[in-house]
Amino acid sequence: MDLWYISYCACLLCLVGRIRALSHSIINQSQSLSDGESLVSEGGTFELGFFSPGSSTHRYLGIWYKNIPVKTIVWVANRKTPIKDRTGVFTINNTGSIQVTSRTSGVIWSTNSFKATKSPAIQLLDSGNLVVIDEKGIYLWQSFDYPSDTLLPGMKLGWDLRTGLNRQLSSWKNSDDPSPGELSDGIELHEFRESVVWKGSEKYFRGGPWNGEQFSGAPDLKVNSVYDYNFISNEDEVYYTYQLKNKSVFSRLILNDSTSSRQRYVWAESSRAWNLYSLVPYDYCDTYGLCGANSVCIITDSPRCQCLEGFKPKSLNSWNSMDWLEGCILSKPFSCESKDVFVKFSELKLPDTTKSWVSGTMNLQECREACLKNCSCMAYSNLDIRGQGSGCALWFGDLIDIRQVSNGGQDLYIRIEASKKAGRRVVNAVLISLITVAVLFGLVLFRYYLSRRKTKVKGIVLGRDHWPSEGPKEDLELLFFELATMVNATDNFSSNNKLGEGGFGPVYKGTLVDGREIAVKRLSKSSEQGLNEFITEVKLIAKLQHRNLVKLVGSCIAGEEKMLVYEYMTNGSLDSFVFDQTRRTQLGWSKFFEIIGGMARGLLYLHQDSRLRIIHRDLKASNVLLDSELNPKISDFGLARTFQGDQCGDNTERVVGTLGYMAPEYALYGLFSVKSDVFSFGLLLLEIVSGKKNRCFHHHHHHGLIGYAWRMWTEGTPLELVDSSLEYETSSMSEILRCIHVSLLCVQQSPDDRPNMSTLVLMLNGESTLPQPKEPGFLRDMIPVEITCIRSSEYDDSCTANEITFSSFGAR
């Protein structure tokens, strides 16, 4: 017995010694780290060990945040060569080379070997950097030089020109596979260095060149309370880096393959989740080369692409049909003999710098003269915009990927045909004076005319009596269509062109004279959407620019007629796919999952990233439209409400929306917030998974579809909710289960328990731990509603119900 006790104590001491060794941040030659053990940085910020991503069983050596409950991987060693079992071991040899080996496959991954080094060791720093150090503490190798998909504070994104080392980010393929995906991010080494995100071998997003303050096409990169940033460019190195202002704050920059974006997240301790801080591409104009050569993308214009002054479309037919890839050419070739051939453009992301030349010593005047001396020179600009500006950058050949930047950007001087400006100099001083007086007099008359008669709207003139008595008469950058144009486009609102009808009136397909297809929402004269709701929708959508929100082309007001003109969505609304078993089969789960992600990003933009916080209040399948590629676009903003600053909700005496999609607190008490939209989103998820409409779902007296889903969840059989006609691979089962889980989190009774959209996006992408849902909010038994279900061979459970807006049920 005594012998057994002694042996036991000896083993225990060995184990304690082993754990103690690993509790330090250093591993030396005599030590190793096996699967199941971990190495923690000295301050306890980061941890290194073996892990399995998502639903995968493969093992990888990686680094993650130690004290954040959502396991967030920031670096992976063997991302291309997973270990198939749990026999992985992490070691360092006498040359300072570190290795990951497995009992079954031998060496899985290793670093370069160095000359024999005395006492090499591996250390995990509190910055998240894994380093190999010699006895003098000199770094022989560091993980910061070989990033995965994440850029941490203090990391360098760019080049070491002395060694040719290029530090690039590369996305994970998906949440289950950390091997390099389609996206990569780094610095291009042209004369004028700039940041670029690639998708495969093609440029996908260009942040623009560094102008001394920021990258000219990255307006989100500005002075803020979270982090400081810098760009270094000299003979030895070219890189971007950032540092956190508050060491207690966690922030990371990642490439996300599933959303095709570069995202910055900040950890929110209050919600215990990563909140999306910024992302690129931000809008349609961020698409690389969208408008072709010698043109500018202006996100608030329609069309977005405009030829630069002095240029014309290369192919007028293509340009008018919104095919801008051929770009623009000079209206008339310029002459190298003239010296007055530059037009100044402001607030631009500078063109692609592939064909550029720079000088740090020239001033702007010298820069102009240098451009004039070379007939291939098309534009010039300052290299650095700080102070009065300094340095010179020249562009040769076509100007590619220019966009207007509302917050940031810089001046660009573009060369055009000389006579366009030379002729202006022959006017004598007397004539100029007369013209000046005439113009001033005309402006006075024009302002008087506007003050008495009309309010200017870009492209249209609307009478003041068309606008509500309260609120600003703001300029809306939209087209105005005459009633005759709408009549002709829709064949006099022919029933053959009718696409559908909602609570506010019918929607018709139309074709303009230039061939563009449109959808015309014609407000019913008996509709409860009056002028206020109409103006609300116009003003809201005019300001919204996101790939997952429907684009408003223009409007029409004529007498009692009020119409909204949208881009035409080839595939109609989402409900035509969700509730039709044949079309569901054609789509399959993978496409539905993409649609779910797109809807989530659209709502995230409305709630958090748009200029105003917007609550939709009527999210449902029929208000999500699908374009030709089945990309979802949220539509119908007639009931939406906007808020400034941190306000995220309100209450109302007039409850409006569609019964069956409303959150209980809104339907019963008029209380609405961003969490009301989250509730509707959760219901929509359940409908997509089940193929059933919540409003006409009956199953053993449960509380509609929500109640049925809750019962299946609590009984441990959530997959019984999945429609049998939904085509999906076995590998997609985890995505479906995650969506059911997320949907139940969205429809919880208390709004405070429901996640916000930034957290939802992370949850859907598998980047956030999912808490257990609480009991959902059952609305069906609280409010009586007459529903008639119709059985047919085409739909399993289609139904008709009153979908118009309704008022509150009683006094508050």
Overall tally of domains: 6
Mean pLDDT: 80
- The low-pLDDT segments are 3-23, 420-434, 448-476, 779-812
How does CATH name the architecture of the largest domain? Answer: Orthogonal Bundle
- End-to-end Cα distance, whole Å, is 77 Å
Helix content: 10-25%
Instruction: Give the radius of gyration.
Output: 31 Å
Helical segment tally?
14
Task: Note down, in words, how this protein is organized.
The protein is built from 14 helices and 50 strands. The longest helix has 29 residues, at 581-609. The strands form 14 sheets. Strands 26-25-33-29-34-31-32-30 form an eight-stranded mixed sheet, with helices on one face. Helix 11 (674-690) runs antiparallel to helix 13 (733-746). It starts with a helix and ends in a 12-residue tail after the last strand. Strand 10 (121-124) and strand 11 (130-133) form a beta hairpin. Helix content is 21%, strand content 29%. The chain folds into six domains: 22-146, Bulb-type lectin domain (Agglutinin, subunit A); 151-282; 286-425, Hepatocyte Growth Factor (3-Layer(bba) Sandwich), CATH 3.50.4.10; 427-455; 458-567, Phosphorylase Kinase, domain 1; 575-800, Orthogonal Bundle (Transferase(Phosphotransferase), domain 1), CATH 1.10.510.10. The chain is an alpha+beta fold and 812 residues long.
